[in-house]
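Exercise 7. Given the encoded structure of a 214-residue chain, write a plausible sequence.
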């Protein structure tokens, strides 16, 4: 009987490992000067910023052949990656609530609010970058599923546009989805985007009320 390695889906994601290591290092360094929750959020933001930078560099260097090869490498664990990264991003929202709540009415309220807003933006961007890669790899691996007007061979940037459009508007704009698999992914992405957009609105209301209260 074959032994299933739970880390198997992650072995082709060096950018995630680099971002995680950087996140831990920055978080530990920050913990010497700020409370634990603040240190976690600072490390989280630092790791995401580095990860997205590495991914965008990869996007700029990739061609259609490398995208297809990458899709084959990541086929087995693509849904696990989506689940784990999305769960981590949602967990960051809980940490933001703790951060802003603990600092409310203190001298650190403004700094905590800024950290909270930065974390929401980083987590929001992280989710869409992850989904952009998922869409790209699914497209080239499973036989299309997304129709980009005027573009027969879309690269990563087309899928990044698609993912961020869903994230900002909860719709697919001028792009057409085809097939149940891609629609399920878009549904999950839209629901997750709704949670983040609601969190952004709630954070804004909370910060506004706090400023008026002060």
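Solution.
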């Amino acid at each position: 009987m074959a032994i299933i390695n739970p880390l198997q889906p992650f072995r082709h994601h060096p950018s995630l490992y680099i971002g995680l290591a950087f996140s831990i290092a920055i978080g530990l360094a920050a913990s010497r000067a700020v409370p634990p929750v603040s240190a976690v959020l600072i490390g989280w933001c630092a790791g995401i910023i580095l990860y997205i930078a590495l991914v965008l560099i990869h996007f700029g260097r990739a061609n259609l052949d490398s995208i297809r090869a990458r899709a084959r490498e990541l086929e087995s664990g693509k849904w696990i990656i989506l689940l784990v990264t999305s769960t981590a991003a949602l967990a960051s929202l809980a940490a933001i609530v703790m951060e802003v709540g603990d600092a409310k009415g203190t001298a650190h309220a403004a700094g905590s609010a800024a950290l909270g807003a930065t974390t929401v933006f980083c987590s929001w961007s992280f989710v869409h970058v992850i989904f952009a890669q998922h869409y790209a790899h699914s497209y080239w691996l499973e036989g299309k599923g997304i129709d980009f007007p005027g573009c027969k061979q879309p690269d990563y940037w087309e899928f990044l546009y698609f993912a961020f459009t869903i994230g900002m508007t909860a719709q697919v704009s001028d792009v057409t989805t085809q097939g149940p698999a891609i629609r399920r992914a878009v549904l999950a992405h839209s629901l997750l985007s709704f949670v983040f957009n609601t969190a952004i609105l709630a954070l804004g209301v909370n910060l506004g009320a706090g400023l008026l209260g002060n």
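Remark. Helices lie at 14-30, 36-61, 64-73, 78-103, 109-142, 156-169, 180-213. Students should compare their own answers with the one above.
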